[in-house]
Design brief:
The complex is a heterodimer of chains A (314) and B (481). With 314 residues, chain A is of the alpha/beta class. Chain A contains 10 helices and 14 strands. In chain A, helix 3 packs across helix 4 and helix 8 crosses helix 10. Classes of the chains: A alpha/beta (314), B mainly alpha (481).
């Protein structure tokens, strides 16, 4: 069963469609990263998943609970890190977490134990007695993440989890998120940080003007949008005749004196064949590697294509 | 992965959790603590001093009555001052949390809308009310010790209930206001909609207390209770996740407003005939309940008029019918009756009355609009009863001077009153999934459909009867024995 399931999810506000026909399936143990320009509908989608907003049409099922039937059970199953941390600045961390623990129905001793454990994990243990108004932006963000994790939810919805953090804190949080995946929990992350998206995502969804315009694994999407992987072969000597040794599935695209780039749909098949052929000819290989193509290229291509399609005369 | 829901948290338990956090937060803010402490401890002592000195002063000049009336008045003031802070706390709790963006994490918890609403209400009410009761206690102890005065139990109960009622109305009103803003500043600007009526109420209560008519305070309590229920219901309706996070409420979108109004006014109609058909088949049936209520209220208006005639009876010769039919038509013609000018005047007057009733109804949940429409019916009842009390023939009076045009005017008043009532009540319970503005504009469009489609044509027909038929009927029926 999907931990997160949406079907034709749509939200309209007074005639404006913020989210339209969004279909998501996220299994436990998976991380879905939602990418999209500002105002694309990411936060509205998250709010519907968290059962804060009711969909105008469509269905949301979280951890087996239908949001239209049992929104309270959905909220109990979800940990939400909001875009704005929204802490109560006159409270102290432990008191704050105890309040939210009780709001989520966690017994006080258990809430205290979990709070201490999470505060330590996110390097906030020493600051637990300070008023939250004295916290730095990064500390506030980390505490908000702790708040989202406090009741050990089956589904985590994280809106810009590392946006205000210094690189070290951001890495701690990213590692924390990655470790939660192995804990059999479904996670949705909204981010503008494409490196972070690439590091975390099992699935990527690009959302634009409320609609999902691309959905899939990062590698699948890259392949779909940027074509087959590009391999680069570097030899110790001249390339002389090496192009002819390429297996039938590989297509040369660029070459120099000692290097060659080619595309292949099946690198796991074609690369060993090429290496074998080169070895038989006695040609020494320095490196054979995939040419990196960034998620940014893919993202800009997807969004750009959608913009062009929209601008084109019908 | 199981899908067995955990048992729901009891309403009060969740509410108290929210209230507890908020009250602890308030007690850390010196800007809330300082005035509460001042108004609880210092202010009652000052009022004790004032009461003692004033009583001594007026007694010296032989006016002990002023002192007797001043002491309960100061009791009310001592109770009221601390609860005025409840308005600030409520605006801070509802609009402030929204402004500081700390509301969304709270809305993401399994606590229900009702628990959050009730919790915040309790948090806004408890500290000021506690301060108010303490202040009253300090004042009363001071008076008992200094001049040996103790309040009659009924008066004390009235003051305690008035204080509580006023606090509940202010806080409920603050929730309604806060739900229409995203900042404390905007909420404070709108708070005059609460402060001004409450100030008027306090002035009214003061006058009643100086007048010594304490029994009227029970009616004020009833009015406060009704207001608290109405505002509480509005607040419950508006304080929900969808309304709080789902709408852009700070921007006045006239184009959208006009579209909502026009779509509801026009409906699916593509011609005047189909529009009329939809007014009669869709809009009119919606008024069924309101029409019944309005009929009851108009009947009550008539009965009140009859009752008042027995208290404020007119001299018999003023309401004698005998002989007034002689030259009545000519006299009426002199006043513009039996002419096109008179018709225009009556139509304009009736339309103006309906417009005023609608305007007043719009601000008062329909109440003042309905009262205005009840007034002419009450006057008819008053004069008919006076005719009867003077030994005249009341049915003949009604048949001659009222019935010809009332046959149409009363249905017009019924329909207008029902439409005004629905318009006024639209803000109390907007339909689920619609904003307050959307619900009000739709109700306004329905009001306009009834007014333009049915009430206005009936009023024109009624005015025609009133100007051209009633004088002739009156002249004939009242012409003599």
């Amino acid at each position: 069963m999907d931990a997160i399931f949406t079907e034709a999810l749509t939200k309209e506000f007074d005639g404006f469609t913020a989210v339209e026909d969004v279909n998501l399936h996220v299994a436990a143990g998976q991380i879905l990263v939602l990418l999209g320009p500002n105002g694309a509908g990411k936060t509205t989608t998250i709010r519907m998943l968290a059962s804060i907003l009711r969909p105008t049409r469509g269905r949301v099922v979280i951890a087996g609970f239908d949001a239209s039937v049992d929104p309270v059970a959905v909220r109990r199953s979800v940990g939400l890190l909001t875009e704005h941390h929204g802490l109560y600045t006159r409270m102290r961390a432990r008191e704050y977490l105890r309040f939210f623990g009780r709001a989520y129905g966690v017994a006080r001793p258990e809430a205290d134990r979990r709070a201490d454990e999470l505060l330590e994990r996110y390097d906030l243990g020493e600051s637990a007695g300070r008023r939250l108004g004295e916290y730095s932006k990064g500390m506030r963000q980390k505490l908000a993440l702790v708040r989202a994790l406090l009741h050990d939810p089956q589904v985590l919805l994280l809106d810009e989890p590392t946006s205000a953090m210094d690189p070290a804190s951001a890495r701690t949080v990213r590692q924390g998120i990655a470790s939660l995946r192995s804990a059999e929990r479904a996670i949705v992350v909204c981010t503008h940080n494409l490196t972070e998206a690439e590091l975390l995502a099992d699935q990527l969804a690009i959302i634009r003007r409320g609609r999902i315009i691309a959905l899939g694994g990062p590698h699948e999407l890259k392949r779909a949008m940027l074509g087959d992987p590009i391999m680069e072969l570097r030899l110790s000597g001249s390339l002389d005749g090496a192009v002819r040794l390429l297996p039938p599935g590989a297509r040369p695209i660029e070459s120099g004196d000692t290097w060659l780039r080619y595309r292949t749909a099946h690198p796991e098949v074609d690369n060993p064949l090429l290496l074998q052929a080169l070895a038989e000819k006695g040609m020494a290989v320095v490196t054979l590697s995939e040419v990196g193509r960034s998620l940014e290229d893919m993202y800009l291509q997807v969004v750009g294509a959608a913009d062009e399609a929209e601008a084109a005369p019908t | 992965m199981s899908a067995i829901p955990a048992p729901a948290r009891p309403l009060l338990s969740g509410a108290m959790l929210v209230a507890g956090r908020e009250i602890r937060d308030q007690l850390r803010d010196w800007r809330i603590l300082a005035p509460i402490a001042l108004l609880t401890l210092f202010f009652p002592v000052l009022m004790n001093f004032t009461a003692r000195e004033a009583v001594g002063f007026v007694n010296r000049y032989g006016a002990p009555l002023i002192g007797e009336r001043l002491i309960p008045f100061l009791l009310m003031v001592v109770g009221f001052f601390p609860i005025s802070i409840s308005l600030v706390i409520a605006l801070e709790s509802f609009a402030g949390e929204r402004e500081r963006l700390s509301l969304e994490p709270l809305l993401a918890t399994p606590l229900t809308d009702a628990q959050l609403y009730l919790g915040k209400m309790i948090a806004s009410l408890m500290p000021p009310l506690t301060a108010s009761y303490l202040g009253i206690g300090v004042y009363l102890i001071g008076l008992a010790v200094q001049i040996g005065w103790t309040p009659p139990p009924a008066l004390l109960l009235q003051v305690l209930l008035l204080t509580t009622g006023q606090a509940v109305v202010m806080v409920s009103g603050a929730v309604v206001i806060s739900s229409q803003t995203t900042s404390v500043r905007a909420a404070n600007l709108l708070a005059s909609f609460i402060i001004i009526p409450i100030s008027q109420l306090i002035i009214g209560e003061s006058m009643i207390m100086f007048w010594g008519r304490y029994s009227i305070l029970w009616w004020i309590l009833l009015a406060l209770l009704i207001m608290a229920i109405v505002l509480g219901r509005m607040g419950m309706q508006m304080f929900n996740r969808e309304e709080l996070l789902g709408r852009e409420i700070d921007i006045l979108n006239l184009r959208l407003g006009w579209r909502v109004f026009w779509e509801a006014f026009r409906g699916e109609a593509n011609s005047l005939t189909s529009w009329y058909r939809s007014v009669l088949s869709e809009t009119l049936p919606r008024l069924r309940g309101a029409l019944l209520l309005m009929a009851g209220l108009l009947a009550a208006g008539y009965a009140i008029g009859v009752h008042l005639a027995s208290i404020y009876t007119l001299p018999a010769d003023l309401v004698r019918l005998e002989g007034i039919g002689e030259g009545l038509a000519e006299q009426m013609a002199r006043f513009g009756m039996l002419s096109g000018r008179g018709l225009a005047w009556v139509v304009i007057n009736n339309v103006r009355a309906m417009a005023l009733a609608s305007l007043l109804g719009g601000f008062t949940f329909g109440v003042l609009g309905v009262v205005l429409l009840m007034t002419p019916i009450g006057l008819v009842g008053y004069f008919a009863a006076n005719v009867a009390l003077a030994g005249g023939d009341a049915p003949r009076f009604l048949l001659a001077l009222v019935a010809p045009h009332a046959l149409l005017e009363v249905p017009a008043a019924l329909l207008a009153g029902a439409a005004i009532m629905r318009l006024g009540l639209a803000v109390i319970s907007p339909p689920e999934g619609r904003s307050l503005g959307h619900a009000w504009l739709t109700a306004l469009a329905r009001w306009a459909r009834i007014m333009a489609g049915i009430v206005l044509p009936i009023l024109i027909a009624a005015a025609t009867l009133e100007v051209f038929v009633t004088p002739l009927v009156a002249a004939r029926l009242l012409a003599g024995p």
